[in-house]
Design goal:
single chain; about 425 residues; about 25% helix
Length: about 425
């Protein structure tokens, strides 16, 4: 949960507060009481004759104006980079890891990635799956669907491609704050799905799981969500389940060194990772009962930023640079030494930076009513040994926020560059 913003949509889908109004053709406006009274008088007849009249009065479906353009938004599958990395945050997400089946190797993996890429391309364009489509998303458009594929450390031994395994994919070190469930960590293959419609996202998840067939089985799967596009009056950095504006210093594509920090260079090593990136995935449970017992002032001291605006405690707006040396009237640092925002600043970590693109999660309550909720942390970088690892080590040594969170699952995946027209994702690795 580093102090960097998550990608957000830069335009609003609908004008704030706009409502659909329906005016009667004559006789003024019906009051709710009058309408209910009429319904009571006509009884069941309204369900038949009245219903038919309602349909007759409604405009033809092919002439109806769409309520929003949200469903028509499309993200391209083919490109220099895979989708779902710099794409604006989506309202719904699924993270799923697969293990290759016993006896499956390089040939089966190549066939699987070919199937998956074909399916992803079709679904992202708003088309039905090539075969046995479930019709779950029949009435929806693409809804900014993205599908992203990656390879775990174990994939390379399973496919006889050990010599092609990147050094950057070496296992992450152990951290003292970890409470990792191995069954929900790592995996041979990783898929990230995001969309602005829950049914579209589920449709993609189910279709890809069926596409795996006998070649691979699900190892773990997690569901997440974000604020819906257009839910705020203006574009805003997302809030997490602690109520904090989560991330204000994400690297931006407009910055001159963005590609160098986030993507493997075109001449990088190994060659098949050109224009790719590395994803660190962490299931971070938030201990919300403990957190919510703190006063707002105490929460702000833990984070180092105002809860209401995201501005640093030293003043200004969300994007104002934090004055780490500023003290109060008693000579105490305004931003405590162990504040999360202080520890995670890139200039306090040798310039280490990562592009955070998380989802919140809530998986119910335990027997004591404690919420199983938190953050599906996903961060992208050209090299995790220079991005995630040094920042997490520093957090591990004294982050005030660590008292209120618990890292419960972890994974590291090599995500190759985007597939060109006529290619499938990972083709340069599997057929190189």
């Amino acid at each position: 949960m580093a102090d960097q913003p998550t990608p957000e949509a830069t335009t609003e889908k609908n004008p704030p507060g706009e409502a659909v109004s329906q005016k009667p053709s004559s006789g003024g406006v019906f009051s709710r009481r009058r309408l209910l009274g009429t319904a009571g008088a006509t009884g069941l007849a309204l369900g038949a004759a009245g219903g038919a009249a309602g349909y007759a009065a409604a405009p033809a479906a092919d002439k109806a104006a769409p309520l929003t353009s949200l469903g028509t938004d499309t993200v391209m599958f083919h490109g220099k980079h895979q989708p779902g990395i710099t794409t604006a945050l989506q309202a719904r997400g699924h993270l799923v890891a697969f293990d290759l089946a016993a006896g499956a190797g390089r040939k089966e993996a190549a066939a699987l990635l070919r199937r998956w890429s074909t399916t992803a391309q079709r679904l992202m364009a708003g088309e039905a799956a090539a075969q046995d489509d479930t019709d779950v998303a029949r009435d929806a458009g693409p809804s900014s669907l993205t599908v992203t594929f990656g390879f775990g450390n174990s994939f390379f031994a399973r496919t006889g491609l050990e010599k092609q395994r990147p050094v950057a994919l070496d296992p992450l070190p152990d951290f003292s704050s970890d409470h990792l469930d191995k069954a929900r960590s790592n995996g041979d293959l990783w898929v990230q799905i995001g969309a602005d419609d829950a049914l579209v996202a589920f449709h993609a998840l189910r279709t890809l799981q069926k596409d795996a067939g006998s070649a691979a089985r699900v190892r773990w799967q997690m569901n997440g969500f974000n604020r819906s596009p257009g839910a705020t009056t203006q574009p805003m950095t997302a809030r997490n389940l602690m109520g904090q504006i989560d991330g204000t210093r994400n690297p931006k594509p407009s910055e001159s060194d963005f590609d160098r920090r986030i993507f493997v260079p075109a001449a990088g090593d190994p060659a098949w990772m050109a224009n790719g990136s590395y994803a660190v995935v962490r299931r971070i449970r938030m201990l919300l009962d403990d957190w919510e017992k703190l006063s707002v002032k105490a929460q702000e001291d833990v984070v180092g930023r105002k809860k209401s605006t995201g501005a640093p405690l030293t003043g200004g707006t969300e994007t104002t640079a934090m004055n780490l040396d500023k003290t109060d009237a008693d000579g105490n640092l305004v931003v405590p030494l162990n504040a999360h925002a202080r520890i995670t600043r890139p200039d306090q970590n040798g310039g280490a930076a990562m592009l955070r693109r998380p989802f919140s999660f809530h998986d119910g309550f335990d027997t004591d009513g404690v919420p199983d909720a938190g953050l599906l942390f996903v961060c992208w970088q050209a090299d995790p040994l220079r991005g995630f690892v040094p920042v997490q080590r520093k957090l591990d040594r004294g982050d005030a926020l660590s008292t209120f969170i618990r890292h419960e699952a972890s994974g590291l995946f090599a995500v190759p560059g985007g597939a060109a027209e006529g290619e499938y994702v990972g083709q340069r690795l599997l057929e190189g």
